[in-house]
Amino acid sequence: MTGRSTGTGEYGDFVQTFRDRYERLSKVLRGRVNHRPAEAIAEMPGGSDAAMIGLVNDVRSTKSGHWLVELEDTTGTFPALIMKDKGLADLVDEILMDECLAVEGTLADDSGILFADSLHFPDVPRTHRTGAADRHVQAALISDVHVGSDEFMADAWSSFTDWLHTPEAEPVEYLLLAGDMVEGVGVYPDQDEELEIVDIYEQYEAFAEHLKEVPADTEIVMIPGNHDAVRLAEPQPGFNDEIRSIMDVHDAQIVSNPATVTVEGVDVLMYHGVSLDEVIAELPEEKASYDEPHKAMYQLLKKRHVAPQFGGHTRVAPEERDYLVIEDVPDVFHTGHVHKLGWGKYHNVLAVNSGCWQAQTDFQKSVNIDPDAGYAPILDLDTLEMTVRKFA
Ligand code: D5M
Ligand code: FE
Ligand code: ZN
Fold this sequence. Notes:
The protein has a six-stranded mixed sheet, with no helix packed on it. A five-stranded mixed beta barrel has the order 1-2-3-5-4. A five-stranded mixed sheet has the order 10-11-12-14-13, covered by helices on one side. It has two domains: 31-120, CATH 2.40.50.140; 138-390, Purple Acid Phosphatase, chain A, domain 2, CATH 3.60.21.50. Helices cover 21% and strands 24% of the residues. The protein is of the alpha/beta class and 392 residues long. The chain has helices at residues 11-30, 38-41, 89-92, 154-164, 200-212, 241-246, 274-282, 293-303, 362-366; strands at 49-61, 67-73, 76-82, 100-107, 114-120, 138-142, 172-177, 219-222, 253-254, 259-263, 266-270, 332-335, 341-346, 349-354, 375-380, 386-390. The chain is elongated. It is built from nine helices and 16 strands. Residues 180, 225-227, 272, 337 line the site of zinc ion.
């Protein structure tokens, strides 16, 4: 979306963004349920079968242990009651505010509430067929370099870039960087006490020098993260001209966060990953945790949205389109941000969270974040198999 930002932050812009979200995600669900608008459901006779598609407006548990989920579409809201004995508890656990869902069930006698029998997420079809390179070629998927931080691991980085020059790394023709290139300034309170380089432009200049260490014929693609010098609200445009010119190394391609790039026929959705903190905080441990960040990524794929929940930790900028919707199913989903390494397949889509190049910071120590630093996940673009190399 770089160069296409039109939002001014007005209320109307937010309405437009959420209408677009509803429009595009409800399309994914429409084939699966025979849905009616909220307004029409309220007029149906009691006892009818009914289904609705909407954004989650509220979800809470009742005194008797059932759940009340209120969905909103463009005509209004309607409540659904999910009884605890319906076997849907596992799905209810996964619900986040503002995501798009479908519920199907039977209307109460007074047509005031829907008793749900099933719940559907937009999800990724199990039959998703992935693209593949037609030769043996690889991509290194990394993120969170954090140049400028006292904790940036320059030696590990150099070992990595040295390795890229060896015959073994010859197939690695691509380097995909999922944000937090530099440590930035003023990102967290007292961050300046841990800065080696305090000037943001000098941080990018130093980053560019480190990037020059990679072989000149490597195709580099970068997106910004929350430490980078662009607006914090997502979608984040791919930097201004001044920063772009500093990072103009080996003809690097700089795109927005999120963005989908196609490499050798493989569609890679790159997203920095700020919403992962929120998904991990909201969902049960076995569904999303810092130790298994790829599972949190599966949830985003299931919701077909990289940052479903609005108004919390993840800032969202209103635009005329909801650029955070995962409209086309990617072959590979690449994130960073949580500084943990993890990967796995969800319905044929490879999810990779790529670790970092920054050793544990004082803040991370204080909250027990133990980063996976100095690893480079290497992806075979012909088989979509992954290997991980350690450089620290
Ligand atoms: O994020 C690295 C990880 O650490 C990510 O999971 C957020 C978390 N983090 C790091 N510092 C803080 C502070 N000060 N508050 C809240 N969460 C934090 P990164 O984007 O690289 O900082
Ligand atoms: Fe980071
Ligand atoms: Zn980050």
